[in-house]
């Protein structure tokens, strides 16, 4: 029975528990009341009032058979001065915010909020059935430690996060995925391909188009120093953007600059032409058209005079099946790259994490919305 609060204490609700037979948790025999204490517990929060308290008598019971003495909490999860529902509510309010802000807003010790969060937060994780997944690596400490994450391409939720980025780590992360996976999107690293083939041999392996184009844009950046006089009149970032972008989205003046730069260096012209040709191949819509265009592209550039182009083509020939699936598939790793940006924000917002397991838990809770 819950009574209305008094005018002097509008946030305190007296609670009267009904009579009941309390059994011993050890031997399940009858117990008797050994002592009782009137106590208050945080049970909720209201914006116009603040913290809501309940006041009830907490009995101390003793078993008639084994003399075991214990405190009975009526199933409210009473710990110190809070109930389980209040602790779970505080944990839900931590989503998208720092623990320090939540502790400051509700006038709680930071260590208490931190303990509650990592105690109840795993309850919010939900298992998903995924048919299309993205897998990629991210830096815990750039240049030192890395981790691998697997994401549901349909919902955007991170399904698993494991430390390291070698083949064993990738296989471990993929093994956590539940459901019949039909497609896996990743970059072009050999460890990714081997892990996908091992865990999901029947799934198609889709390569991220951004990483494919990046081979050519990186080669153009390396050739930038050979652009002669153009380098003196334009910033290097402007040159890189013009050479990497699709000509259709550039202005007439920028396309004129590109034509001038291509006449100054032969290798830059070859790399740029190969890049525009692979973009033309990406526009294919049917399987015969994809095979024909990709075959023509590889025959033209496989033994090209420009070493940078021929090297990229040889790498694509080794992944011919994955390349054909990539051109036909509408999937990309864009959602995964956006999630990696969220991970960076989570890491920056927490000023780093001393416990990787807590960091991975936070990633799974914060991403996908």
From TrEMBL:
Residues 133-363 form the Transposase IS204/IS1001/IS1096/IS1165 DDE domain. It comes from Bacillus seohaeanensis. PANTHER family: TRANSPOSASE FOR INSERTION SEQUENCE ELEMENT IS1557 (PTHR33498:SF1). It comes from the Bacteria. NCBIfam families: transpos_ISL3. This is ISL3 family transposase.
């Amino acid at each position: 029975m819950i009574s209305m609060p008094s005018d002097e204490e509008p946030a305190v609700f007296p609670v009267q528990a009904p009579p009941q037979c309390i059994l011993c948790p050890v031997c399940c025999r009858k117990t008797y009341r050994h002592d009782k204490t009137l106590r208050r517990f945080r049970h909720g929060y209201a914006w116009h009032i603040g913290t809501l308290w309940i006041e009830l008598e907490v009995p101390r019971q003793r078993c008639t058979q084994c003399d075991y003495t214990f405190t009975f909490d009526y199933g409210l999860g009473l710990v110190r001065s809070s109930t389980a529902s209040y602790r779970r509510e505080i944990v839900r309010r931590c989503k998208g915010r720092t623990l320090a802000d939540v502790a400051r807003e509700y006038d709680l010790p930071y260590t208490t909020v931190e303990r509650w969060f990592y105690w109840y937060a795993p309850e919010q994780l939900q298992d998903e059935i995924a048919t299309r997944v993205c897998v990629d690596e991210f830096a815990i400490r750039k240049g030192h430690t890395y981790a691998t994450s697997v994401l549901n391409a349909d919902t955007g939720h991170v399904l698993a996060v494991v430390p390291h980025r070698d083949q064993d780590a990738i296989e471990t992360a993929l093994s956590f995925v539940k459901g019949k996976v039909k497609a896996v999107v990743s970059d072009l690293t050999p460890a990714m391909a081997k892990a996908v083939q091992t865990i999901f041999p029947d799934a198609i392996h889709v390569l991220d188009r951004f990483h494919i184009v990046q081979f050519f844009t990186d080669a153009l950046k390396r050739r930038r120093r050979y652009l002669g006089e153009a380098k003196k009149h334009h910033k290097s970032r402007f040159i890189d953007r013009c050479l990497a972008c699709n000509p259709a989205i550039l202005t007439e003046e920028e396309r004129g600059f590109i034509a001038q730069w291509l006449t100054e260096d032969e290798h830059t012209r070859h790399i740029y032409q190969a890049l525009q040709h692979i973009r033309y191949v990406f526009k294919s819509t049917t399987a015969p058209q994809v095979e024909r265009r990709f075959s023509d592209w590889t025959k033209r550039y496989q033994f090209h005079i420009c070493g940078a182009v021929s090297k990229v083509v040889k790498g694509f020939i080794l992944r011919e099946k994955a390349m054909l699936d990539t051109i036909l598939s509408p999937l990309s790793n864009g959602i995964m790259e956006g999630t990696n940006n969220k991970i960076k924000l989570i890491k920056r917002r927490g000023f780093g994490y001393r416990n990787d397991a807590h960091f991975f838990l936070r990633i799974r809770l914060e991403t996908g919305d």
